[in-house]
Amino acid sequence: MEARGTNEHVIEVTDLRRVYGGGFEAVRGISFHVGRGEVFALLGTNGAGKTSTVELLEGLERPDGGRVRILGHDPYTERAAVRPRTGVMLQEGGFPSELSVAETARMWAGCVSGARPVAEALALVGLAGKAGVRVKQLSGGERRRLDLALALLGEPEVLFLDEPTTGLDAEGRRDTWDLVRALRDAGTTVLLTTHYLEEAEGLADRLAILHQGRIAVSGTPAEVTAEQPSRISFRLPDGYFVGDLPPLDALGVCDHEIDGRLVRLRTRELQRAATGLLVWAERAGVELRGLDLRSASLEEAFLGIAREASAKNEEVSA
Ligand SMILES: Nc1ncnc2c1ncn2[C@@H]1O[C@H](COP(=O)(O)OP(=O)(O)OP(=O)(O)O)[C@@H](O)[C@H]1O
């Protein structure tokens, strides 16, 4: 699939490193780029280095190695050139909670040149009806929406969203996705971090999965999932054993496990494996109860990276 965006790299990250006091290397040389009008998702296990990376992109800290360019500028040393063109939604907003939603937005708008009307920003995130409510009375999900409204006030060309839908209910999450898509369609470049694989799969044009400070895999969601096997599971019909099934390697099955009478198969040829099993069942006159076919997914890629990592850790500690 062709990635969205133009050849212009709005975000360029090259061999980026971040080392915390005590010498802990949280970001260990990562490189990627994001084109104008693209949505790029950073995924990762807990502590993988997502927030540490995003803070460097936002210019909040100076990298310990490598370089970042946002709209062609260094976001740390050329903050004045970059900041007015970017919108940032941090994990913790931390507003004065006694102010109302509209007062908070107005205060924020005062710090932004060419801010869009406050009412418009609140309407974009579905908070128009809460303008007079004090921030401390908002629910967690509503605060998240307010964070997003503030990030949108300056009509940014580049938007950094750190876990934008954490704490939102299913409807709020979908509303946020629609909004991000609309912003992207209007040309905004979006970099987001998320723990929700479904969010990255549905929203991102390209993504990277970080693990222990490095990019373990990156590409379009289709490219990343294409490398993963699909899964089939079913219950063995009564009176049958695994040996009675058609030879699994002839079905393109790469591995399998049996749990009581439940059979789980992994294959890179879902249609061939499913057809082989169904034809066998039809001929034998039996039913494959609980039959479940799952295409390769981002979840599989993510779990694969976590599995590999824990196997390596076990090797090291053995
Ligand atoms: N100020 C700090 N000093 C020392 N270590 C830190 C500091 N901030 C973060 N770390 C460590 O750096 C690593 C990466 O943290 P980071 O917050 O970037 O991960 P993350 O991918 O955003 O994690 P999560 O998904 O849990 O939010 C973690 O091991 C964390 O403990």
TrEMBL record:
Q: Which UniProt keywords apply?
A: Antibiotic resistance, ATP-binding, Nucleotide-binding, Transport
Query: How does the record say this protein sits in the membrane?
Result: Peripheral membrane protein
Q: State the name under which the record lists this protein.
A: ABC transporter ATP-binding protein
Q: Read off the InterPro entries from this record.
A: AAA+_ATPase, ABC_transporter-like_ATP-bd, ABC_transporter-like_CS, ABC_transporter_ATP-binding, P-loop_NTPase
Q: Which molecular-function annotations from GO does this UniProt entry contain?
A: ATP binding
Q: Where in the cell is it found?
A: Cell membrane
For this protein, the record's SMART domains field holds:
AAA
- Read off the PROSITE patterns from this record: ABC_TRANSPORTER_1 (PS00211), ABC_TRANSPORTER_2 (PS50893)
Q: Which residues form the ABC transporter domain?
A: 11-237
Predominant cellular place of this UniProt entry's protein: membrane
